[in-house]
Amino acid sequence: MKIVVALTGASGQIVGIRLLEILKNIGAKTYVIVSKTAKKIIELETNYDLNYIKSLSYKFYNEDEITASIASGSFKHNGMAIVPCSIKTASSIAYGIADNLITRAADVTLKEKRKLIIGIRETPLHIGHLKTLVRLAEIGATVYPLVLSFYIKPKGLDDLIDYNAYRIAELLGVEVEYTRWSDTK
What we know:
The chain is of the alpha/beta class. It is 41% helix and 16% strand.
């Protein structure tokens, strides 16, 4: 299984990192892109560094490596997740502005009718944000807001992070086990 994963300049880097850990544990080949801003936020929000992200990657890219194989429709993969996804990146994808490797890979993923998961991390949302998210859904992306799920009865922050990362992995077609909603009868 080949999965493209991008981390962009939004809060919530730990969810993207946890997704990479899950994908590595199942033996997926991850093609990872980290934006310049994401690199700064990883340092601010987590205890991880770029070397750790690289260790989770099958292949690692900077956002300016526009000639990378993942920028082409001929590169076959099982899907792409952008976690976390900034509104800037989401807007660029929604309106076809493919000016870096993240937005180009996302654009190619959509045109080739592959899975694109947008782990949006913004709140509150104004009408411009909402229109961008609707447009993404209309052109084939799955918009996945990184929200808290309390029916899992989280014991701590790690449970909430894991829930989101496992759900995104599942949306990419990975067989995973996590706490699911069940009948309350």
